[in-house]
Design goal:
The structure is a homodimer. By secondary structure, the first copy, chain A, is α+β, with helices and mostly antiparallel strands. Chain A contains 5 helices and 5 strands; from the N terminus they run ααααββββαβ. The structure holds a DNA duplex.
DNA sequence: AACGTTTTTGATAGTCATTCTCATCTGGCT
DNA sequence: AGCCAGATGAGAATGACTATCAAAAACGTT
């Protein structure tokens, strides 16, 4: 993936060391079109470098989150799920029957959130919004 | 508190046994104007019945949540926080510096959420929305 | 009020996701 | 090629929560 090379040099420029394991994890993230858990990323990273350990997956995810390179999602039930944040911001709708995650985006809601925070005397730093629904037949 | 008596009979009507411990936990919840954790509720419940254990707090909270009597909030960092759901629905803004929780309500956002779910082919069951902000000076 | 069934309880062990520890290894500057 | 701060793997530790189980307590029935 091209994403990976870009991310690598971006991170390297910020003084982050690029190790075999980190490349493997970035590659796994880049290849993922869903929202994998740490455990799933471990599996997928090992296709690129079989030496990757779970501890390193967690550590790398923390580094990446700190740099704003990925987004951590904590949906209801189960562990955190991750995705690269190189695509436009979006929120999630989770199918409560299958667990499927659908991405969506609403500028109206984004604007309303800013507005609400402002009215309450706060500067909005980030937000979390998840819809939980059941597929209509 | 009067809330407690009402909740008691409501729950009793649904076949839920009213024990000393459950009364203590309901009382603690009713007295709380903030969003206590299970641990905090244990402390506060013990003012009403010193025999309450942590296991019972968790069990009772599950029962109450199942009956729709309380709402469980999973804000970022730390454990779940609870509140009686006998007041109108609202969402939360969390001060990222102090942890203070501010409640707010936006009918516009509620409506937009319904609409988004519908457009995606889902029936909205519930949602989660938290704003994280910094107090404006 | 006492009985009997069924649920609840306290104490504690277990689970699960995540973080920490530490001896060893390695990326990237020189 | 050599150095060394930072990264790694393996596994122990943590923290929030859930399960287990024998003893205790609700509450409908007498």
């Amino acid at each position: 993936m091209n994403d990976v090379k870009e991310l690598e040099s971006e991170l390297r420029g910020e003084g982050v060391r690029i190790t075999r394991q980190r490349v493997a994890i970035l590659s796994a993230l880049s290849d993922s079109k869903d929202h994998p858990t740490a455990e799933e990323l471990l599996e997928r990273s090992r296709d690129f470098d079989s030496s990757v350990s779970l501890a390193t997956v967690y550590r790398t995810l923390s580094v990446l989150e700190g740099r704003g390179a990925i987004q951590r999602n904590e949906f209801e039930g189960g562990g955190a799920r991750f995705e690269l944040s190189n695509r436009p911001h979006h929120d999630h709708l989770i199918d409560i029957e299958t667990g499927k995650v659908v991405e969506f985006r609403s500028d109206k809601i984004e604007r309303l959130q800013e507005e609400i925070a402002r009215e309450l005397g706060y500067e909005l730093v980030h937000h979390r919004m998840e819809l939980y629904g059941r597929r209509k037949s």
